[in-house]
Write a structure and sequence with these properties.
Layout: H1 15-34, E1 40-49, E2 55-66, E3 70-72, H2 78-84, H3 87-107, E4 114-118, H4 121-125, H5 129-140, E5 147-152, H6 153-157, H7 160-171, E6 176-182, H8 189-192, E7 199-202, H9 204-208, H10 214-229, E8 233-236, H11 242-250, E9 255-256, H12 267-278
Parallel strand pairs: 2-4, 4-5, 5-6, 6-7, 7-8, 8-9
Antiparallel strand pairs: 1-2, 1-9, 2-3
Helix pairs in contact: 3-5
The protein binds ligand C2E and magnesium ion (MG) (3 copies).
Length: about 280
Amino acid sequence: RAKKDGRNSFSFYDPEMNLRVQETLELETDLRQALDREEFLLHYQPKVDLASGAVIGCEALVRWRHPRRGLVPPNDFIPLAEETGLIVPLGAWVLREACRQARRWKEAELPPVSVAVNLSARQFRQGDLPELVADVLAETGLDPHLLDLELTESMVMDNPVKAGRAMLDLKKLGVSLSLDDFGTGYSSLNYLRRFPVDCLKIDRSFIRDVVDDPSGASVVTSVISIAHNLGMAAVAEGVENEDQLRFLASCGCDTYQGYFFSKPIPAEEFVALLQRETLPAGE
Ligand code: C2E
Ligand code: MG
Ligand code: MG
Ligand code: MG
């Protein structure tokens, strides 16, 4: 076909596309080496109890300190890691690092905080995930109740029967399970009620609209009542201002995360924050 177009054939060559392909290849090469080179790190975003205002946990969020690109956010490399299978060793590293960290906090006699780890679809599908989690818990000595694993709707609704079984295997270890980005996928309520899930995390996109948009607000109140009716806690993500927080408090949301309280921060900063919290009032 290129030949037939004669002298215009060069128009098939798209330099921009070529650049993108090359960039992806380069990123993939870098990604393969990044674990060995210890270029990954975790930031921790506090989870706050709405009623008491206390920090009760955090979510571990991975970042990549790339030698030339600087700090790369997960959305720029997790999909590639997922595609290439690199997510499996990376996910294991994140789990181990987060548990190690949480164990250290406990030793430092800080108030008990749980740590949440995001699982990827591929990681969840791997048959040996419960073994990995059990190994990491044994190795780090972290109390299983302090580990929370975040799954997304699409991961579990893909094959709900199999996912339900995998979730039970994880629950047997004593860990908590959360459904992340809830409301953005296609959850069947029929399965949802049978899943051993502890928390529903209401997606940020719904929280954003809560104050100005009555339909956004009613989605949030509905999700909170679904969670409570199923015996689950409701967690709001992406809370950016006081109006949103006040609304969530008024409808009985249990926990929140968001820039309003704190962005994801390095471990040392999170420790400092916990220490500030435990100071007696007035100090
Ligand atoms: P997520 O699990 O839903 O995490 C919440 C994301 O929202 C984080 O982005 C967080 O920084 C951001 N966020 C929190 N509060 C606010 C807020 O008030 N306003 C706004 N605009 N954003 C807020 P981040 O760290 O870039 O992570 C993006 C996604 O990457 C995560 O979404 C998660 O799906 C994925 N991810 C992060 N770490 C890991 C990991 O270790 N493994 C896997 N499989 N996925 C991960
Ligand atoms: Mg998450
Ligand atoms: Mg989320
Ligand atoms: Mg989200």
